[in-house]
Amino acid sequence: MAMEYFSGLPVNGDILRITFVQIMILANLAIGIFLIGMYMNLKKWGMGSTGYGQSPSKSILAFPKMLMYQMNEHAHVHNQSVLETFVLDIIFQRRILRRSPLRWFMHFTIFVGWMTLFLLSLLMFAVEMTYMIAGQFGIHTLDPSLFREMLAVPNDIFSYILLTGIIIAIYRRLFVAKVREATIAYDSILLSGLTLIVITGFVADGIRTGRFWGFGLPFEWAPPAALFHVIISLLFCIAYIPFSKYIHMIAIPLALLANKGGE
Questions:
Q1: How many domains does the chain fold into?
Q2: For the segment 139-154, what is each residue's pLDDT rounded down to a tens digit?
């Protein structure tokens, strides 16, 4: 029940290979779109002048070079270490905590839940690929089914952490007047997309395991449900990031590193 669950179709001769290839093509397409988007962003971020009286740079390397320079430069106001900035300002997001504990809790749960689930998915993917490749040479590796069961509890924990953050975000958008008035359609699309991804993940897993999130749907629906969840996750959580407001997940940490945690 390993590869068939990932691929979205039951194991049936050539169907598995075709479906798995299709998923790999989609994954690489999503990564390719992400890289193109990041290239466009890096080029845009590097368009400014790198010094007084100098002409604007047109190199994609201008921004990374300036970032490294800023990180090594002796700051005039903020002079904390890169490690301190990374841990306190990026991971624990203390700047948001100073402004609003509830908003910080929302951001922190979404960040931790999303990033951890992403890393667990990468681990699962690595085990699946290793199992397939090693099997071609008669080498025995860790059974993906066993590894999936090992990840079951961490997946559950961080899925509910992410869901908690999403519920708080929805509540703030609907019932906090200041937040509701500042919400635009762009924000609603992002929150709706993330909500859809989380809910479909719960449903796919609920159908597979027979828990209440499966809503009593037959087990045969588990592979298609998982396939749908994988597809929208690839498109929304990877390909769409450079072209959406979620680029702040990359841009803000870079700005904090450049400013050494400055406001």
A1: 1
A2: 888 888 888 888 889 9
